[in-house]
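Hi support team,

I submitted a single chain yesterday and got back a structure, but I'm not sure I'm reading the token output correctly. Could someone confirm the output below corresponds to the sequence I sent? I've pasted both exactly as they appear in my results page.

Thanks,
R.
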Amino acid sequence: MVRRPKRPRGTLIYDGPSMLDGSGIIAVAVRSSDNEKTGNMVQVYILARDIHPVEAIKLQVKMGTCG
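Hi R., thanks for writing in. Yes, this is the structure output for that exact sequence:
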């Protein structure tokens, strides 16, 4: 059985410096959502570029993404 690669859930829409502090950030647009309140709409996530989101929360690395 041949397994097909998973289709990406989102699209990278920005990769560059934060306007807040110059740190590296990315912005990812997700085209579909399971959110019952908003329905199926585009959601945008702004994340630190070089650190896993869970690790960023633990280390409180958020100045470049949320000021």
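A quick pointer for reading it: Residues 53-59 form the longest helix (7 residues). Let us know if anything else looks off.

Best,
Support desk
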